[in-house]
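Exercise: predict the structure of this protein bound to zinc ion.
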Amino acid sequence: MSDEQTARSELVAAYRQVAALGLNQLASGNLSVRFQAGMLISPTGASAETLTEAGLVYVDGEGRWAAGARPSSEWQMHTAIYREVPGANAVVHTHSDYCVAVACQNRPLPGFHYLIGLFGGEDVPCVPYSTFGGEELAEAAAAALRHRKACLLANHGMIAQASTLKGAVGLAQRLEIMCRQYVLACQLGEPTLLTQTHWHEFFDRVTQASYRN
Ligand SMILES: [Zn+2]
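Solution:
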C-alpha cells in the first residue's frame, strides 16, 4: 500500500474506533492526520457507517481541496493546530458526553487528579465559545494546544492533538473518562485540587520515568 492508502485506511479505522468507544455519535466530531503539506480529514456529514477511505478529503497547507470534495465544516480548527503545533500529526475532535457537560460550564477541567498532568499541565483549558467552523474558534483552539495535548471547547466539545493517531484517540478517550470522574467527584462536593508542590513532583516524576525508558 502507498503511504496515502495507509494513512486513509488508518484514519477510517480510528474514526470507527472513536464511534465504537461512544465518543462520537451520528455525524458529530471529526478526525484528521497530517499528510504531506496538508492533512487528510473526515468529510462533512460523515458517520461511522458512511465513512469510506475515498471519502476522506485532502486539504492542502493553503486550505484548498479538490473540486467536489467536502471536508468537515471544522477543518480550519485542524489546519490551525497543524500550523501552530509542529509535533501534532493527528487531531481528534469529539462531542463526547462528559466533555460537553464540563465544557458547558465554560471553565477548565481543574487539576483534581494527577492524570490531568498527562495533558501537559495542571488543568485542561476551556476555549471560549465561538461559532463552529469559524476562524476565531480555530485560532483559539490552536493557541490552547500549543502547550497542551487537549482542550475543552465551551458549549461544544473537546479537541486533542498527538504525534500519532493512536495517541490522539487515546487522549480523547482519557479526557472523556476524566470529565466523567470529575462530574462524579463534584456530586460529593467541591473536589480537592492538587497543589503546586504536587504538580512539581508529578512533572519531576514524569521526567525521571521518561529518562529511564
Ligand atoms: Zn464540533
